[in-house]
From TrEMBL:
<comment type="function">
    <text>Responsible for the release of ribosomes from messenger RNA at the termination of protein biosynthesis. May increase the efficiency of translation by recycling ribosomes from one round of translation to another.</text>
</comment>
<dbReference type="InterPro" id="IPR036191">
    <property type="entry name" value="RRF_sf"/>
</dbReference>
<keyword id="KW-0963">Cytoplasm</keyword>
<feature type="domain" description="Ribosome recycling factor">
    <location>
        <begin position="21"/>
        <end position="182"/>
    </location>
</feature>
<dbReference type="InterPro" id="IPR002661">
    <property type="entry name" value="Ribosome_recyc_fac"/>
</dbReference>
<keyword id="KW-0648">Protein biosynthesis</keyword>
<dbReference type="InterPro" id="IPR023584">
    <property type="entry name" value="Ribosome_recyc_fac_dom"/>
</dbReference>
<protein>
    <recommendedName>
        <fullName>Ribosome-recycling factor</fullName>
    </recommendedName>
</protein>
<comment type="similarity">
    <text>Belongs to the RRF family.</text>
</comment>
<dbReference type="Pfam" id="PF01765">
    <property type="entry name" value="RRF"/>
</dbReference>
Length: 184
Protein backbone atom coordinates (compact mmCIF):
# COMPACT_ATOMS: atom_id res chain seq x y z
CA UNK A 1 0.00 0.00 0.00
CA UNK A 2 2.77 2.43 0.92
CA UNK A 3 4.69 1.41 -2.19
CA UNK A 4 1.62 2.21 -4.30
CA UNK A 5 1.31 5.67 -2.77
CA UNK A 6 5.01 6.37 -3.33
CA UNK A 7 4.92 5.06 -6.91
CA UNK A 8 1.89 7.21 -7.70
CA UNK A 9 3.57 10.27 -6.16
CA UNK A 10 6.73 9.60 -8.18
CA UNK A 11 4.80 9.35 -11.45
CA UNK A 12 2.84 12.51 -10.77
CA UNK A 13 6.00 14.40 -9.79
CA UNK A 14 7.75 13.18 -12.96
CA UNK A 15 4.86 14.55 -15.01
CA UNK A 16 5.07 17.87 -13.13
CA UNK A 17 8.79 18.18 -13.89
CA UNK A 18 8.18 17.37 -17.59
CA UNK A 19 5.38 19.94 -17.72
CA UNK A 20 7.73 22.54 -16.22
CA UNK A 21 10.39 21.77 -18.84
CA UNK A 22 7.79 22.10 -21.61
CA UNK A 23 6.67 25.38 -20.09
CA UNK A 24 10.27 26.64 -20.06
CA UNK A 25 10.60 25.72 -23.74
CA UNK A 26 7.74 28.06 -24.64
CA UNK A 27 9.73 31.07 -23.38
CA UNK A 28 11.88 32.36 -26.19
CA UNK A 29 15.61 32.80 -26.12
CA UNK A 30 17.86 34.55 -28.64
CA UNK A 31 17.06 31.96 -31.32
CA UNK A 32 13.73 31.28 -32.96
CA UNK A 33 12.57 27.83 -31.89
CA UNK A 34 9.52 25.89 -33.16
CA UNK A 35 8.74 24.94 -29.54
CA UNK A 36 7.75 28.56 -28.93
CA UNK A 37 4.50 27.77 -30.73
CA UNK A 38 3.90 24.52 -28.84
CA UNK A 39 0.96 25.93 -26.88
CA UNK A 40 -0.51 28.17 -29.58
CA UNK A 41 -4.21 27.49 -30.16
CA UNK A 42 -5.68 28.59 -33.48
CA UNK A 43 -9.40 29.24 -33.89
CA UNK A 44 -9.99 26.73 -36.70
CA UNK A 45 -13.66 26.70 -37.74
CA UNK A 46 -14.69 27.72 -34.24
CA UNK A 47 -12.57 25.10 -32.46
CA UNK A 48 -9.32 25.92 -30.62
CA UNK A 49 -6.78 23.67 -32.36
CA UNK A 50 -3.04 23.33 -31.59
CA UNK A 51 -0.91 24.96 -34.28
CA UNK A 52 1.15 21.78 -34.73
CA UNK A 53 -1.99 20.01 -36.02
CA UNK A 54 -2.64 22.71 -38.62
CA UNK A 55 0.81 23.49 -39.96
CA UNK A 56 4.46 22.51 -40.16
CA UNK A 57 6.96 24.84 -38.54
CA UNK A 58 10.48 25.24 -39.93
CA UNK A 59 13.45 27.23 -38.68
CA UNK A 60 15.50 28.36 -41.73
CA UNK A 61 17.42 31.12 -39.92
CA UNK A 62 18.33 32.03 -36.34
CA UNK A 63 15.52 34.57 -35.91
CA UNK A 64 12.97 33.38 -38.45
CA UNK A 65 10.30 30.67 -38.37
CA UNK A 66 8.21 29.62 -41.35
CA UNK A 67 4.75 28.22 -40.66
CA UNK A 68 3.31 26.28 -43.62
CA UNK A 69 -0.39 25.49 -43.09
CA UNK A 70 -1.81 22.23 -44.39
CA UNK A 71 -5.04 24.06 -45.19
CA UNK A 72 -4.50 27.49 -46.83
CA UNK A 73 -7.87 28.71 -45.54
CA UNK A 74 -6.41 28.68 -42.01
CA UNK A 75 -3.65 31.14 -42.94
CA UNK A 76 -5.33 34.26 -41.50
CA UNK A 77 -6.33 32.45 -38.28
CA UNK A 78 -2.77 31.15 -37.78
CA UNK A 79 -1.31 34.60 -38.37
CA UNK A 80 -3.74 36.13 -35.85
CA UNK A 81 -3.03 33.45 -33.22
CA UNK A 82 0.73 34.08 -33.48
CA UNK A 83 0.23 37.85 -33.34
CA UNK A 84 -1.91 37.47 -30.18
CA UNK A 85 0.76 35.40 -28.37
CA UNK A 86 1.87 37.15 -25.17
CA UNK A 87 5.57 37.60 -24.35
CA UNK A 88 6.70 36.92 -27.91
CA UNK A 89 6.91 40.28 -29.64
CA UNK A 90 6.95 38.56 -33.04
CA UNK A 91 5.61 40.11 -36.20
CA UNK A 92 4.08 37.47 -38.50
CA UNK A 93 3.67 38.22 -42.21
CA UNK A 94 1.48 36.27 -44.60
CA UNK A 95 2.32 35.90 -48.31
CA UNK A 96 -0.71 33.79 -49.24
CA UNK A 97 1.06 30.43 -48.84
CA UNK A 98 3.10 30.64 -45.64
CA UNK A 99 3.36 32.72 -42.49
CA UNK A 100 6.85 34.07 -41.92
CA UNK A 101 7.56 34.98 -38.28
CA UNK A 102 10.57 37.19 -37.64
CA UNK A 103 11.62 37.44 -34.02
CA UNK A 104 12.95 40.77 -32.78
CA UNK A 105 16.40 40.94 -31.22
CA UNK A 106 16.23 40.48 -27.45
CA UNK A 107 17.26 43.50 -25.39
CA UNK A 108 18.87 43.16 -21.96
CA UNK A 109 15.66 44.39 -20.32
CA UNK A 110 13.54 41.85 -22.24
CA UNK A 111 15.93 39.04 -21.27
CA UNK A 112 15.52 39.95 -17.59
CA UNK A 113 11.72 39.94 -18.00
CA UNK A 114 11.94 36.45 -19.49
CA UNK A 115 14.14 35.29 -16.60
CA UNK A 116 11.49 36.54 -14.16
CA UNK A 117 8.80 34.75 -16.15
CA UNK A 118 10.77 31.49 -16.16
CA UNK A 119 11.44 31.75 -12.41
CA UNK A 120 7.73 32.25 -11.82
CA UNK A 121 6.91 29.17 -13.91
CA UNK A 122 9.57 27.23 -11.99
CA UNK A 123 8.11 28.28 -8.66
CA UNK A 124 4.63 27.23 -9.81
CA UNK A 125 6.01 23.81 -10.75
CA UNK A 126 7.69 23.44 -7.35
CA UNK A 127 4.43 24.37 -5.61
CA UNK A 128 2.69 21.69 -7.67
CA UNK A 129 5.30 19.08 -6.64
CA UNK A 130 4.88 20.06 -2.99
CA UNK A 131 1.10 19.75 -3.37
CA UNK A 132 1.58 16.21 -4.66
CA UNK A 133 3.81 15.53 -1.64
CA UNK A 134 1.17 16.87 0.74
CA UNK A 135 -1.57 14.68 -0.75
CA UNK A 136 0.68 11.61 -0.68
CA UNK A 137 1.62 12.36 2.93
CA UNK A 138 -2.10 12.46 3.80
CA UNK A 139 -2.57 9.12 2.01
CA UNK A 140 0.31 7.62 4.01
CA UNK A 141 -1.06 9.02 7.28
CA UNK A 142 -4.44 7.42 6.46
CA UNK A 143 -2.71 4.02 6.62
CA UNK A 144 -1.70 4.58 10.27
CA UNK A 145 -3.80 1.76 11.73
CA UNK A 146 -2.87 -0.75 9.03
CA UNK A 147 0.94 -0.49 9.09
CA UNK A 148 3.57 0.03 11.76
CA UNK A 149 5.12 3.29 12.92
CA UNK A 150 8.54 2.37 11.49
CA UNK A 151 7.09 1.78 8.04
CA UNK A 152 5.27 5.11 8.16
CA UNK A 153 8.47 6.93 9.16
CA UNK A 154 10.43 5.18 6.39
CA UNK A 155 7.73 6.05 3.82
CA UNK A 156 7.76 9.68 4.90
CA UNK A 157 11.55 9.84 4.48
CA UNK A 158 11.26 8.26 1.02
CA UNK A 159 8.56 10.76 0.09
CA UNK A 160 10.75 13.65 1.24
CA UNK A 161 13.71 12.32 -0.79
CA UNK A 162 11.46 11.91 -3.82
CA UNK A 163 10.17 15.46 -3.45
CA UNK A 164 13.68 16.85 -3.01
CA UNK A 165 14.91 15.04 -6.15
CA UNK A 166 12.06 16.42 -8.25
CA UNK A 167 12.43 19.97 -6.92
CA UNK A 168 16.17 19.73 -7.71
CA UNK A 169 15.25 18.60 -11.24
CA UNK A 170 13.09 21.69 -11.69
CA UNK A 171 15.88 23.90 -10.30
CA UNK A 172 18.38 22.34 -12.73
CA UNK A 173 16.09 22.94 -15.72
CA UNK A 174 15.51 26.48 -14.47
CA UNK A 175 19.27 27.18 -14.26
CA UNK A 176 19.80 25.88 -17.81
CA UNK A 177 16.98 28.06 -19.15
CA UNK A 178 18.23 31.16 -17.30
CA UNK A 179 21.74 30.64 -18.71
CA UNK A 180 20.23 30.22 -22.17
CA UNK A 181 18.19 33.42 -21.79
CA UNK A 182 21.08 35.53 -20.52
CA UNK A 183 23.49 34.26 -23.20
CA UNK A 184 24.12 37.04 -25.72
Amino acid sequence: MIADVLADAGERMDRAVEAAKEDFATVRTGRANPQLFQKVLVDYYGTPTPLAQLASINNPEARTLIVTPYDKSALKAIEQAIRDLPNLGANPTNDGNIVRVTMPELTEERRKEYVKLVRSKGEDAKVHVRGIRRKSKDDIDALKGEVGEDELARAEKELDALTRAHVDGIDEALKRKEAELLEV
